[in-house]
Structure prediction request, 114 residues.
Amino acid sequence: MNPVSGDPGPNTELEQAVELLVRQVGHWQPPRWSALTTDGNVSRADLVHKLVQEVANLAADAEGQPRRTVPRLDNDLALPDQLRVVAADLVAATPAPEALAWAAAEVTATRTAL
Prediction:
């Protein structure tokens, strides 16, 4: 919340979107992660990892740092934690509000596609 106006700010939207996605997938076991997304193009795990990489790229851009590849771990159960970490990095980097809003929209779109 914006302490002045009481309106939720973009980082609050991002944090809420991440929390909703993590609640949706946090209990998934490997078979659910390996299932295809609703459009049938990629596995759910690959889609979430792509999201993690995109958010990490935004954070690197906001920090003025080079983009780095987020490791694709063997255990898909780590993906919710990876998303939380890169989202927190993005918020801490204090990017433009548009970047935070875009990230929140991407998290929501990913959640819908799962």
Observations:
- Helices lie at 10-25, 30-34, 44-63, 79-92, 97-113.
- The longest helix spans residues 44-63.
